[in-house]
Amino acid sequence: MIERRAFGKTGVEVSVLGFGGSEIGFLDAPQEAVDRILGAALDQGINVIDTAECYRDSEAKIGKAIAHRRVEYFLFTKCGHNPGLEEFEDWDPRLLEASIDRSLRLLQTDCVDLVQLHTCSADLLAQGDVLRRAREAGKTRWIGFSGDGEDAVAAIRTGAFDTLQTSVNFADQQCIDLTLPLAKEAGLGVIAKRPVANAAWRYAEEPVGMYAHVYWQPLQELQYPFLNDPVEAFRAALQFTLAQDVHTAIVGTQNPERISSNVAESSRPIDQVRIAGIRARWAEIARPDWVGQT
User: Fold this and answer.
1) Domains in the chain and their CATH numbers?
2) What is the pLDDT of residues 256-287, one digit of tens each?
3) Alpha helices in 107-167 (DSSP H)
4) Cα–Cα distance between 287 and 108 in angstroms, integer?
């Protein structure tokens, strides 16, 4: 059975591997595939599903696929951007309210477990008031911040949020010293996004314009010895993230067959010697501009 960890101060246990809904939206996965992917995820013990308002039709696909199994998983979404609600500016309180209501409708639920401010700057953290009102209205159980760097530090220090979602991987280690200790001290549930560095090692040439681009160059310089073996690279990436002070790591796929292998990898004993080597290499090589990806 997949490992579960106590999710900060929420009082629940979450699977160390969560399912991320960005790929099924951005890569136009057919509904039939989404049904199979999410069904397999729940069947194998994954109990965290994370999506967002701007992942195209991800919320709608998730709602169609597993709304009938709602009691089996914790459902996370985000708000802040305005696709489909262009009458409002990003971060307008009216947008956030409309976005949360739309997410509930698309996800086919009366209440999500977590609504997160989606990568906003520190000066917009006051918009968390909208999320607090949503919690008071019973539309969400918890509220959180999704972001990195000093903005994440500011969010933690407000004391207003239950969770932090932030970039954690072997090509993006800023948070390990900057934000994860603060989140742990505050008792926040910590969600690791981009835990396998967008699998940037797959590309022989720089993937300009692609999501993996930001991690490709650091990996060229870090030259971890396992990067030439795709299986070992994925294993090392996931283990590195799970070895940090996080509770669940969000991994997406549009391939139903990947669910079983991802669950198996998340259940392997962590190679602490390898983890220490990755940290040492980072300390030796990392440049100041290798900061958390937003």
Assistant:
1) 4-199+243-270 (3.20.20.100)
2) 999 999 999 999 999 999 999 999 999 999 99
3) 128-136, 149-158
4) 45
Q: Please state, as a whole number, how many other Cβ atoms lie within 10 Å of the Cβ of residue 288.
A: 6
Which tokens is 125 given? Answer: 């953290």
End-to-end CA distance of the chain: 32
Answer whether 265's CB lies under 8 Å from 235's CB. yes
State how far the alpha carbon of 200 is from the alpha carbons of 209, 215, 267, in Å: 13, 6, 23
Q: What is the CA radius of gyration of the chain?
A: 18
Beta strands in 88-232 (DSSP E): 112-118, 140-146, 163-167, 189-193
Packing angle of the helix pair 272-285, 230-242 (nearest 10 deg): 90
**For the residues of 62-107, what is the DSSP string, one character each?**
HHHHHGGGGGGSEEEEEE---TT-TTS-TT-HHHHHHHHHHHHHHT
* Dist. CA 37–CA 247, nearest whole Å: 22
Say if CB 144 and CB 132 are below 8 A apart: no
- Helix, strand, coil share of the chain (percent; to 5): 45, 15, 35
| 142: DSSP letter | E
Q: H or E stretch including 40?
A: helix 31-43
pTM equals: 0.97
Answer yes or no: are the C-beta atoms of 219 and 197 closer than 8 Å: yes
* Per-residue pLDDT at 293 exceeds 80: no
- From CA 72, how far away is CA 85, in angstroms rounded? 30
Q: How many CA atoms lie within 13 A of 90 on its CB side?
A: 12
Among 250, 241, 189, 244, CA closest to 48: 250
Q: What's the CA angle centered on 190, arms 67 and 280, to 5 degrees?
A: 135
Instruction: Report which DSSP code applies to 8.
Output: G
User: What's the length of the chain?
Assistant: 294
pLDDT, residue 211, reads 81
Contact 259, 84 (CB under 8 A): no
Q: Residue 283: what residue type?
A: A
